[in-house]
Specification:
148 residues; alpha/beta; Collagenase (Catalytic Domain); globular
Length: 148
C-alpha cells in the first residue's frame, strides 16, 4: 500500500508536505476500508495539465487536479487504483487567490482526487454533498479547516 509521488519538474515539496500527503492517503484507505492499494501522484505544471485535460476531458484549459481510474487488468495484481495529476502552479496560484495554506490545499486536492478514483463525484448537488462531507471529515482529522 502506498502513495507513489512523481515530481519530475522538481517543484519544491517539503518533506513535511510529502509526509502529510502520505498520511492523508493512508487515512483515506483506513476510512474507506481499503487495506491494500496504491495510487500514483504526479506533481506537474499547467502546460501538462492543459494537455491532459484536453486529451481526456476535451477541455482546453489547465485545472488543479485530474484523476484516472486504473481499469487495466493489472489492477487485481498490483492493487493500484489509478493515477492523480496535480498542477503545482495551479495549486499555488489558487491557494494565494483563496488565501489558504499551499500545503493544506495540495492535501485537499489529493483527497479530492482519490475520492474521484473511488467513484465519488460532484456532478449534482446530492453527490457533491456526499463527497464534500467525506473530504471535510478527513481534512478535519488532519487539522485542515473546511475549504468549502
Amino acid at each position: 500500500m502506498g502513495l507513489f509521488i512523481s515530481n519530475e519538474e522538481n517543484f519544491s515539496l517539503t518533506n513535511v508536505l510529502e509526509n502529510k500527503l502520505n498520511e492523508a492517503f493512508f487515512l483515506i484507505c483506513n476510512e474507506e476500508s481499503i487495506p491494500y492499494c496504491s495510487i500514483n501522484l504526479k506533481i506537474t505544471n499547467d502546460d501538462v495539465m492543459q494537455q491532459l485535460n484536453n486529451k481526456f476531458r476535451k477541455k482546453n484549459n489547465t485545472t488543479n487536479v485530474l484523476s484516472f481510474v486504473n481499469e487495466d487488468i493489472s489492477k487485481k495484481l498490483t492493487d493500484n487504483l489509478g493515477d492523480i495529476a496535480i498542477s503545482y502552479e495551479y495549486i499555488k496560484k489558487e491557494a494565494q487567490e483563496l488565501n489558504i495554506d499551499f500545503d493544506d490545499h495540495m492535501i485537499h486536492m489529493l483527497i479530492h482526487g482519490v475520492y474521484h478514483i473511488l467513484g465519488f463525484n460532484h456532478d449534482n448537488d446530492k453527490r457533491a454533498c456526499v463527497m464534500e462531507k467525506k473530504e471535510i471529515k478527513l481534512l478535519n482529522k488532519l487539522n485542515i479547516k473546511n475549504p468549502y
